[in-house]
Amino acid sequence: MKMKCWIILICLLCPLPSTYALENHVVINMGYDFGGEDLVNVQFSSGDSGEIRTDEGFYIDLGSLTVFTKTLYLQTTIGFKAGAEEALNGELSWKSMPLRSALLFRTGNYRLGGGLVYHMDPVLKTTGAPGDTKVKFGNTPGVEFLAIYAPYRFTYSETGYQFGLRYTMTEFEAHDIKVDGNTAALFFGFVF
After folding, report:
1. Can you point out the beta strands (E) in the chain?
2. Beta 23-35 vs 183-191: how paired, if at all?
3. What is the pTM of this model?
4. pLDDT tens for residues 153-174?
């Protein structure tokens, strides 16, 4: 299993040589992932309750957008994701570092495609009334599909802003327990 994870990581980090690219750009995306499986619930003093879900939370990604042709792109990013639920009697948090690589096809102002995601060091942490616990999940590969609206075409350069939707399919595992990490995300980003 470790060998498969290293092969995936190397493939994500080593895209096609940039000598074949027309352009290379920096991309920054930020957004929120919704979904995943309930991991822990917490009760607030007001009577309301909250939960933390696998792979749900705010994230920011930084990486590259490589333009191979006017219609073929490769977007590779690494980021930080965090979700939290705080109450007077405790706190729940989810953190991970997703590495993403997606092949995208441009049609008009839209980019559509899919790729791989590799979640590094996913951790669930609880403090207070839920108990002081830290659960480390194994590094987890997954698959994602993207639809991006990028309304810029001022010149041949691909710089500007973008909005997108992403669906990620993954399954996290810790101590022989598997939890669903499928999420849908809304994001906003810039390409420089």
Report:
1. 23-35, 38-43, 49-53, 57-67, 72-87, 90-107, 110-128, 133-136, 140-149, 160-174, 177-180, 183-191
2. antiparallel
3. 0.84
4. 544 556 788 999 999 999 999 9
DSSP for 10-23, please give it: HHHHSPSPGGG-SE
Query: Under a CB-based contact definition with an 8 Å cutoff, are residues 140 and 170 in contact?
Result: yes
Task: Give me the phi and psi of 4, to 5 degrees please.
Answer: -60, -40
Tally of structural domains, the chain: 1
Q: Is 180 exposed, middle or buried (0-12, 13-18, 19+ CB in 10 A)?
A: middle
Q: Is 19 a domain residue?
A: no
135 located within any domain: yes
Domain-embedded: residue 105: yes
Structure tokens given for 61: 């990604």
CATH of the domain at 166: 2.40.160
Could you read off the pLDDT of 37-63 as tens digits, one per residue? 888 777 666 677 778 888 899 999 999
Q: Give the pLDDT confidence score for residue 154 in this predicted structure.
A: 42
Name the residue range of residue 88's domain. Answer: 2-12+26-191
Please name which of 136, 135, 94, 102 lies closest in space to residue 118, comparing C-alpha atoms: 102
- Whether residue 17 is contained in a domain is answered as no
